[in-house]
Design goal:
By secondary structure, this protein is mainly alpha-helical. About 70% of the residues lie in helices and about 0% in strands. Helix 1 crosses helix 2 and helix 1 crosses helix 6. The radius of gyration is 21 Å and the shape is globular. Keywords: DNA-binding.
C-alpha cells in the first residue's frame, strides 16, 4: 500500500502538470483569438479536459485569463529589470545605451515569446474590455520605473527632452510588437514574417536608428 505522503505528492504533481497544460494551451488561444474570441469550452477541448475539470483546477475563464496575464507581466518585468540591473547604478551618460539595450532585449524576448506581445496587442484592440486595470497594474509601473531611471539624463541633456519620453517608449513597444505580431513586405511585395532572419536584421537596424533619432539631442549651433 503506497504511503499517504507519496500519494499526496503524486496527486499534487499531476494536478500541477494539468494546470500547466491548460495554461499553455489557453495562452496560445488567447494570443491567437483574444479573450472575447475564446470560450472556456474551446480551451477545455483543446487541453483534453471537460469544462468542470478546467474550472476546478484554475477557476473561471476570467480567472484563467488573469493568471495568464500575470505570468506574461512577470516575464516582461524580469526581462526589463535584468537589463536595468546591468546598468545599475545608471549614469546619465549611459542612459541612451540602456534604452538601446532595452529595445534589443525586448525584441529578443518578443521573438522568443510571441504569445506575450500578441496578448497585449489584443488588449490594444479593446479585447476583454470588462477587465480594465491590467495596464495600470502591470504596464504603467514598468514605464514609470524606466522613466524615473532616465530622468537625470533628460535633465543633463544626454537625451533629447523635446519628445515626450512616454511616446518614445511607446513607439519602441509599438514597433517591436507590430513586427513580432505581423509582417513586412520585401521589394517584390512578398510577405516576410518575424521568423525571416534578414527581416529581423533589417528591423533591428531600423529600430536602433529610430531610437538614435528620437534620443539624440539636437546639435547646438553657435
Amino acid at each position: 500500500m503506497p504511503d499517504f505522503v507519496h500519494t499526496v505528492r503524486f496527486m499534487t504533481s499531476a494536478a500541477d502538470e494539468q494546470r500547466e497544460t491548460i495554461l499553455q494551451i489557453a495562452t496560445r488561444m488567447f494570443a491567437a483569438l483574444g479573450y472575447d474570441g475564446t470560450s472556456l469550452q474551446q480551451i477545455a477541448e483543446a487541453a483534453g479536459f471537460d469544462v468542470a475539470a478546467v474550472t476546478s483546477l484554475l477557476g473561471s475563464k476570467r480567472d484563467l485569463y488573469l493568471t495568464i496575464m500575470e505570468r506574461a507581466h512577470e516575464a516582461d518585468r524580469a526581462a526589463i529589470e535584468a537589463v536595468m540591473a546591468r546598468f545599475a547604478p545608471l549614469s546619465p551618460a549611459d542612459a541612451p545605451k540602456m534604452i538601446h539595450a532595452l529595445a534589443d532585449d525586448y525584441l529578443d524576448f518578443c521573438l522568443s515569446n510571441p504569445q506575450i506581445p500578441a496578448l497585449w496587442a489584443h488588449r490594444s484592440l479593446f479585447d476583454a474590455q470588462d477587465i480594465t486595470d491590467l495596464e495600470r497594474r502591470y504596464v504603467w509601473p514598468l514605464h514609470a520605473q524606466i522613466h524615473k531611471s532616465i530622468q537625470p539624463a533628460l535633465e543633463a541633456g544626454h537625451i533629447d527632452d523635446a519628445p515626450d519620453f512616454r511616446y518614445v517608449l511607446w513607439t519602441m513597444i509599438w514597433c517591436v510588437e507590430g513586427f513580432c505580431c505581423g509582417d513586412v513586405l520585401d521589394d517584390e511585395g512578398n510577405r516576410l514574417g518575424p521568423d525571416d532572419q534578414q527581416a529581423r536584421i533589417d528591423f533591428r537596424r531600423y529600430l536602433h536608428l529610430l531610437l538614435d533619432r528620437l534620443l539624440t539631442p539636437p546639435q547646438k549651433t553657435s
